[in-house]
Amino acid sequence: MSDVNGFRDVLDRSAALARDRADPLRDRVDLFLPTGPDVVAYLDGNSLGRPAAAVADAWAGLARDWAGRLIRGWDEGWMELPGTVGDELAASVLGAAPGQTVVADSTTVNLYKCLRAALNLRPGRRRVVVDRDNFPTNRYVAQSLARDLGLELVWLAADPDGGVRPEDVAGVLDDDTAVVTLSHVAYRSGFLADMEAITDLAHRAGALVLWDLCHSAGVLPVELDRCEVDFAAGCTYKFLGAGPGAPAFLYVHRRHHDRLDQPIWGWLGGADPFQMGPDHRPAPGIRSMLSGTPPIAGLLAVREGVRVVADAGVPAIRAKSVALGEWTVALADAWLAPLGVEVASPRDPARRGGHVSLRHPDARRLCAELAAAGVLPDFRTPDVVRVGLAPLTTSFTAVWDALAVLRDLLSGARPRAAADPTAADEAPPMAPNG
């Protein structure tokens, strides 16, 4: 009998099967389209979630509506979808009241619009606090605005295996700080930041906050209204499963709506889009954050993904996410640590999001070899195998099987690909989605 990190018989595959039988979410996987027969374990749902079966039905219905109603569809509900789906997302996933969230554009565009709008609300303040280990898009957007507006970026150098803590932020705030922009869950380590404490610190300094929710929306509780968050943005193709390139979302607390001024003036963000007037007059409220034509197919996919998450309930999803994370860490300690693998995520589950990062100097090639064996995690530079744990579709047995393959590759029980001097230049399958 074995007991690793509190898990009895973690090294016995039957223990994984038993946990799956006891899982209250075990039947939810039936709501998703099956993976290909060559997939042993899909551990990249934190980059690109599996599609709900209802998405295919929604798209087929859209094609029929499009054919039957043609351009009349815009007047029969399509035009309102960014706000309607935004409210559905806000209610079940974001902890936000109606009228503060829209689904539109990409995460990059939404981060840009939100950051510029936040800066416009703090004229005269010139400093923006940014995490140096944040996702590249977030840093690049801040850098572009700093260049264009003559701002000073204040870089936080957080622990790469952890993330930004309230004390890190408190140490750099002053009366010239305009905005603090951070990720709720760090894309590399999975560190879960203290949203409430950091937001409160920023507000006490007179600054605003912009949170990136890409790695938290749909997998753990988010309470934007309760935390009095100013701005937030995030994607829908990870734990919400809306598909590759699905539209992102943005949130603006209603206390800012009467002074919103975002930089990408599009006709659908106007007070009367069909007035076709000579000058832009922004719509009241959150609709002023819209720019271009709504992507209807993507919006319908977001709606179906949100419905699946809402039906399961975020608290139940979070409970399984924590259990899967602890299971992964226990197997890594038992099997992989002796083979040179280090857990590069917080060990405290209260400070860890929906993935576990494993560090190994040969991580890039290991990810390629895992993919060849039917195990699909992803690689993050310079040395991380990132194990994504999507609770609605990931089983304890899948994690067991995947890490057993990784163990066998490292131990020599499974033949490894011959070393290739050019391998460092050949990227393994690696999701572009954060």
From TrEMBL:
Q: Which InterPro entries match?
A: DegT/StrS_aminotransferase, Kynureninase, PyrdxlP-dep_Trfase, PyrdxlP-dep_Trfase_major, PyrdxlP-dep_Trfase_small
List the cofactors. pyridoxal 5'-phosphate
The EC class name is hydrolase
Report which superkingdom the organism of origin falls in: Bacteria
Gene3D superfamilies linked: Aspartate Aminotransferase, domain 1 (3.90.1150.10), Type I PLP-dependent aspartate aminotransferase-like (Major domain) (3.40.640.10)
Recorded GO terms, molecular function?
Answer: kynureninase activity; pyridoxal phosphate binding
Q: What is its EC number?
A: 3.7.1.3
Question: Can you cite a GO biological process for this protein?
Answer: NAD+ biosynthetic process
What pathway annotation does it carry?
Amino-acid degradation; L-kynurenine degradation; L-alanine and anthranilate from L-kynurenine: step 1/1; Cofactor biosynthesis; NAD(+) biosynthesis; quinolinate from L-kynurenine: step 2/3
Q: What are the protein's UniProt keywords?
A: Hydrolase, Pyridine nucleotide biosynthesis, Pyridoxal phosphate
What this chain does, per the entry, is described as: Catalyzes the cleavage of L-kynurenine (L-Kyn) and L-3-hydroxykynurenine (L-3OHKyn) into anthranilic acid (AA) and 3-hydroxyanthranilic acid (3-OHAA), respectively.
Similarity comment: family membership: Belongs to the DegT/DnrJ/EryC1 family. Belongs to the kynureninase family.
Q: Summarize the subunit comment.
A: Homodimer.
Q: What is this protein called?
A: Kynureninase
Species source reads Nakamurella endophytica
